[in-house]
UniProtKB/TrEMBL annotation, chains A, B:
Organism: Halopiger xanaduensis (strain DSM 18323 / JCM 14033 / SH-6)
Entry-linked InterPro entries: PurM-like_C_dom, PurM-like_C_sf, PurM-like_N, PurM-like_N_sf, ThiL-like
Domain of life (superkingdom): Archaea
Signal peptide as annotated in the record: none
Residues involved in substrate binding: D39, E247, Y296
Pathway: Cofactor biosynthesis; thiamine diphosphate biosynthesis; thiamine diphosphate from thiamine phosphate: step 1/1
GO biological process: thiamine biosynthetic process; thiamine diphosphate biosynthetic process
Gene field: thiL
Catalytic reaction(s) noted: thiamine phosphate + ATP = thiamine diphosphate + ADP
Annotated PurM-like N-terminal domain residues: 18-123
Name of protein: Thiamine-monophosphate kinase
A molecular function (GO) term: thiamine-phosphate kinase activity
Other noteworthy facts: Reaction mechanism of ThiL seems to utilize a direct, inline transfer of the gamma-phosphate of ATP to TMP rather than a phosphorylated enzyme intermediate.
Amino acid sequence: MDERAALALLEGELAAAGDDAAAVDGLVVTTDMLHERTDFPDGTTRYTAGWRAVGASLSDVAAMGADATAAVAAYAVPEFDRDELLAFVRGAREVCELVGAEYVGGDLDEHEEFTVATTAIGRTDDPVRRSGAEPGDLVCVTGTLGRSAAGLELFRRADREDDASLRERANDLFRFEPRVRAGRAFAPHATAMMDSSDGLARSLHQLAGASNCGFAIESDAVPIADAVRDVADGEREALEYATTFGEDFELVATVPEDALEAVRSESNVAISVIGAVVDSDDGITLDGEPLADRGYTHGE
Amino acid sequence: MDERAALALLEGELAAAGDDAAAVDGLVVTTDMLHERTDFPDGTTRYTAGWRAVGASLSDVAAMGADATAAVAAYAVPEFDRDELLAFVRGAREVCELVGAEYVGGDLDEHEEFTVATTAIGRTDDPVRRSGAEPGDLVCVTGTLGRSAAGLELFRRADREDDASLRERANDLFRFEPRVRAGRAFAPHATAMMDSSDGLARSLHQLAGASNCGFAIESDAVPIADAVRDVADGEREALEYATTFGEDFELVATVPEDALEAVRSESNVAISVIGAVVDSDDGITLDGEPLADRGYTHGE
């Protein structure tokens, strides 16, 4: 059974499953486990790892349209190193501060592989689900897509060329601002929302499944990060990176057209309209062609 | 740097560190990572693992005197097995139900070693800390101590003798009721509280450090689980198991003498008075002899 099948199995078991975070009693809660082999390429600093791991959970809070309250992390390594641990905590704390949450520590453990489990908590009385998108709504994306794809490629190049400045740039690309403020801007208006951590294409398929709708996306409206163009071989490959790689932690949301200006005025990041919600019979298309359900599956 | 040194380092960094859970904004939050090699002996069922892992975090919520609201778990295995995953979720859910919390799922991950990271959340406006014990207060313990020590020994015997019924008994001993209701009973009165997960002796040293006090404990008042006597060689070894092994998830609390009856009347489990808080100059003693700071360090 692969991870997606296991997730599907759990959705039948747990009422709270199926959104980016579970909503319970005015809170949203989300947890993620990341580990060295699959999530932190060689050259990732512990500062970046702390930022990214905690940021990933804060992104799930943002995707529910909630305020971010607090985050914790369990940090496991083969052997504790003072500077690494402090750098991790600093990254975790700074990403929390950026979105108004408090980093309140966690657990330490010895483990053969560097492994981090993070949990973030937010507050909202009216969480935004993945279900609820209606034909005619606009499809919106925050920020730009492809930063993590570009970062991963730069980590590889930095490794091959043993280039410290490339490695630093890759680390920069691996840190991101969780879209808590944009999520709050979307919250009163969005009909459906999630984050793009599995890639835009897969996110659209997941929203379509939950909302029973289709999407008509225009490729020239997809906001591609500049860094992608430095590593991609042409515009077509850049679009491929931006739509399928994922791990970008931007928000994908659907809103009625008349709410767009209100959302944009409350958001601290650019919001691109990349297409429209259509009837489920019309499928999920990019420039009129079917957009496959391809993307990053965590842990693969 | 070992785990205790790393924890001490973090206490300087994080204002919220040093109690069983972090208190933030009317909530308490706690996270734990457990893994196969050190936390789940051969023969531990996934049902027991789910119960125990989530129960450990709920115990930390209880130790703050908070109501338990919700728990999540990140579940990582080399390969997903449907029955194992469902058994884990059932254990996690049942321990939550037992204390009135909601199990709201979590994350799945592939990992070479079975690893679980759990987070529990509770609510209280007035968390009970480890600091605050005053000379003259009574030292109380919930339930009985030594169940996990006995369970571990039975897992070993079950392995040697390939005995399924011994294994089942060991699993029973490895599941426990998190003391949320007792923690709520202590909350209005306790001057200091924590859980006994590192063993009674170490817990007393931690409380003494945080409260700047000493303890005079009477060995014949320490509540030893019956199961310990089945595996210990005599009363002296039984006491050793009960005071130093830990992993029992009972509460250790200090209360003014006149509050004892009120606490007992609200608790659903027996509360033993094992001694008294004394001046820090008088140290931590068991039957008048110094009680060493020995116990289980997680991850060792």
